[in-house]
Design a protein that fits this description.
Helix content: 25-40%
Largest sheet: 10 strands, antiparallel
Radius of gyration: 41 Å
Shape: rod-shaped
Distance between the termini: 132 Å
């Protein structure tokens, strides 16, 4: 029999005593030995445990730092993409202005924005340098345009003949399948779907050189346009407006940009209300059509590849003498 006594600091208190028999003593001894063994193991394994804890903390800090870096990289990439799209839009606008002024475009201008792909830091750095080069080239070209000698800007077509938000392009300048004959043909203009009665406005100042129904001398293909108004913008530019429901100007009248010429209408060749808008340029020998979308600076109906490589009208596509 073994007795264990615990004495209090206060002498007035009686000591506490526990009596252990042989079996309880063995259990207590085993517990003490086990505790001592665990303490010894802990003392020997403490450095490894501390190293593991430190490394775990470092891994967690590294993971957090990596996530923050990726978020910062994504933010920079998104801002770069927005800036690249803005630069592309400015390049396209300058290219259209140059085409209106008959100025030659630099090679590969405007550049086409390719679909975005997963980029690394190195790729993004290369793209930033390339964008800087594009900005410098665009500024040089802008200065060329600003220094160019041009006719009166008020007489240069530069706006859509109908409000862009209320019109949808049906057929653009270039080869197509005729909706009437279902055969290949060259469409020398821009077909815009709009509600009947929508006002048709002058894209620039000009003089009315023709109003009314297309004369028989123009040919069968032209007679489908029904009511037509033709404006002269100086000696080398004509704009033509077909499928009109009503005409509000007279031949010989001078109009200003934004003045009403008539309204969108229909006829038996065009049961759907639409407007045919054509732009014709005199090259010194013939009147040749050009893409009207180049002259619509208040709507984005044309792309960079179409500006760089416009469709070439075939020989024989001429403006009738009555419209000149």
């Amino acid at each position: 029999m073994t007795e264990i006594r615990f004495h209090s600091r206060d002498p007035r208190r009686k000591p506490r005593a526990w009596k252990l028999d042989e079996r309880a003593g063995r259990v207590a001894a085993a517990i003490l030995v086990l505790a001592g063994t665990l303490v010894a193991i802990g003392l020997f394994g403490a450095p490894d445990l501390v190293t593991y804890v430190v490394r775990s903390a470092e891994r967690i800090a590294l993971r957090v730092g990596t996530q923050r870096g990726l978020l910062a990289f994504d933010s920079v990439r998104l801002r770069f993409e927005r800036l690249e799209k803005r630069v592309a839009a400015d390049e396209l606008f300058l290219a259209r202005v140059a085409a209106v002024l008959s100025l030659p475009l630099p090679a590969t201008f405007p550049e086409q924005v390719l679909p975005a792909e997963e980029a690394t830091t190195t790729d993004l750095e290369v793209e930033v340098h390339r964008l800087g080069r594009r900005l410098r080239a665009m500024e040089t070209f802008r200065r060329r345009i600003a220094a160019a000698r041009t006719p009166d800007p008020a007489w240069i077509p530069s706006r859509s003949p109908v409000e862009p938000s209320s019109a949808v392009p049906l057929s653009v300048f270039g080869p197509r399948i005729s909706p009437l004959t279902h055969r290949p043909e060259f469409h020398a203009g821009l077909a815009l779907a709009a509600l009947a009665g929508t006002p048709v406005l002058a894209p620039a100042g000009g003089r009315v050189v023709f109003t009314g129904h297309v004369p028989g001398s123009a040919g069968a293909a032209w007679r489908t346009f029904g009511n037509v108004v033709v404006l002269a913008h100086g000696a080398q530019t004509r704009t033509l407006f077909g499928y009109l429901g009503s005409v509000r100007v007279k031949r010989g009248q001078t109009v200003r940009r934004g003045e009403a010429l008539g309204t969108v209408g229909t006829n038996r060749f065009s049961p759907t209300p639409q407007l045919h808008y054509g732009v014709w340029k005199y090259d010194g020998r013939n009147w040749r059509p050009v893409d009207p979308r180049l002259y619509v600076l208040d709507a984005d109906w044309i792309t960079a590849p179409e500006v760089r490589d416009p469709p070439e009208p075939p020989p024989g596509v001429e403006l009738p003498a009555a419209f000149r």
